Amino acid sequence: MSDTTPAPPAAWPLVALFTAGYVAPYLLPTVVGRLDAHLPLSPAQAGLVGTALLLGSATAGFTLASRIPRRGPRPLARLGLLLAVLGYGTAASTTLLPLVVAGVVVGGFGSGSATAVAAAGIAGHRDPHRMSSLGLLSVSATAGALYLTLPHLGGGHGLPFAAIALVAALAWPATGRLGGATRPGPAAVRSSGRPPYPRAGAVLAGCLLLWSLTQEALWGVSGRIGTEQAGLSEATLGVVFAVALGAGLLGVTGASAFGTRLGRAVPIGAGTAAIAGCVVLTASADGLAAFAAGEVLWNAVYPVVLSYLIGLAAALDPRGRWAVFAGAASSLGTACGPVAGSLLAEAFGLPGMGLVLGGLLLAVAGPLTAVAVHAGRGPAATATAEPVLRGEVAAPAPGPGTGPAADAPVRVRRTPRRILLLTPTAARTRRAAAKERL
Predict the structure, then answer these.
(1) pLDDT digits (tens, 9 = 90+) for 198-242
(2) SS3 string of 251-318?
(3) Can you say whether residue 8 is alpha, beta or left, with left for phi > 0 and alpha for psi between -120 and 50 degrees?
(4) CA of 397: how far to CAs of 8, 124, 165, 169, 223, in Å?
(5) How many CA atoms lie within 13 A of 322 on its CB side?
């Protein structure tokens, strides 16, 4: 009897879910800007609404991390997409502030749910790094297209929310290729406790929270740096941001093509150090050349390192729990980033803020690299995959990526020797050998 293992999750449904979940944070600057311009909200209040969206997304990740293997990806993905459509659709269709805020929070939870399911599926894929690179490439291209299109479709606060809801609706057909809820087998039950490598996973999640906070802190004041300190016009600033987004697409494409030839430790450690330098350069820029160089280089390196961090979380637990926890921690750091950037800029000035953020990035680069080295010594796939009961053979899953079996490969052992000795031929051989000894 040949060994059989369940098929990994299909690629394009996970990329579609990843895009639907991540597009809201990518569009956060235009969401906050339109809330400030078209609703009776101050810039700080509009920023708090954006923070509420990201907190809702982070809450979904922390809530669903342990439930995806038991519930199955399909029902949770559909629930998340439904909440995203309803939440963002409500925020787009009304000007009543309580309904807008409620819709944003519900939509954020839906986005986080889609991201959590996608992260768990990516962790169980044969090549998590390539999958995360494809997801980042897709969401970057989608956000770039929306950034170029939305200004030509009219004003109003609801247009970005409607676009996010539309992306979520378009991702719905992808859920048909995901697995539904199944009854977990003995291996899944035994491995449904805490994730493996608890210390390394906790360090990764904590460092990723700070790592994301620094990125969003700089992004939140980049416009202010460009106009007030570098002396750029709004039109020139928009061109710089467009070029930076294009550099991000090139960076993700290169990361996908290069793969993990250098492992994860070098890209994560060296890339984080490079981002720290870009942060300091951007925050201290007093002209177009320095500002553009910092922004373009930063946006080129940031998604590359993020793709390796997602792959690292997947390596710590192929069932996807650390990937979901790390994504939720990243969303939490992103939510706190704009507030942190504003407070640091007021306390130390823009160049001082850059130095603090750069130092924080250098501080987390060491632990992140150590976790990557630790994960590279022994893949969690072999450590966490529970063997089936002796004498059993794993049956194929009912569909691609179905249930907990799709989250981690199951090793099939040969029939034990003591069972083979019970066959008729083996029994006769043993009796003959016993007679000869007598």
Answers:
(1) 888 899 999 999 999 998 888 878 877 888 888 888 678 778 887
(2) HHHHHHHHCCCCCCHHHHHHHHHHHHHHHHHHHCCCCHHHHHHHHHHHHHHHHHHHHHHHHHHHHHCC
(3) beta
(4) 10, 14, 32, 28, 51
(5) 31
Euclidean distance between CA atoms 167 and 153, whole angstroms: 17
> Minimal CA–CA distance to 230: which of 295, 183, 166?
295
Residue 395 Rama label (left phi>0; alpha psi -120 to 50; beta): beta
What is the average pLDDT across 42-58?
A: 84
User: What stretches of 3-96 show up as alpha helix (H) in DSSP?
Assistant: 11-26, 28-38, 43-64, 68-71, 73-93
Q: pLDDT-derived band of residue 191, with 50, 70 and 90 as boundaries? A: very low
Task: Record the tokens describing residue 197, joined without a space.
Answer: 């490598």
3-state SS, residue 181: coil
Task: Pick from 59-63, 66-70, 392-396, 413-417 the range whose average pLDDT is largest.
Answer: 59-63
What b/e sequence results for 187-224 when a residue is b if at least 16 CB atoms lie within 10 Å of its CB, and e otherwise?
bbeebeeebbbeebbebbbebbbbbbbbbbbbbbbbbe
Instruction: Tell me the one-letter amino acid at 264.
Output: R
Query: Which among 320, 61, 69 has a CA at the least distance from the CA of 179?
Result: 69
Pick the range with the lowest mean pLDDT from 43-52, 208-217, 279-288, 380-389. Answer: 380-389
| 184: number of Cβ within 10 Å | 17
Q: How far apart are CA 299 and CA 275, in angstroms?
A: 9
Complete DSSP assignment for 395-420: PPPSSTT-TGGGTS--PPPPPPHHHH
CA–CA dist 313, 323 (Å, integer)? 5
Q: Tell me which of 131-135, 148-152, 346-350, 426-430 is least confident.
A: 426-430
Encode pLDDT of 306-331 as tens digits. 888 888 888 888 777 888 888 888 88
pLDDT at 262 over 80: no
Phi, psi of 106 (to 5 degrees): -65, -45
**What radius of gyration, in Å, describes the C-alpha atoms of the chain?**
25
As a whole number of angstroms, the distance between CA 420 and CA 434 comes to 18
- DSSP designation for 422: T
Question: Residue 319: is it exposed, middle or buried by C-beta count within 10 angstroms (0-12/13-18/19+)?
Answer: buried
CB atoms < 10 A from the CB of 348, how many? 14
3-state secondary structure of 365: helix
Report residue 93 as tokens: 């269709």
pLDDT band at 78 (very low <50, low <70, confident <90, very high): very high
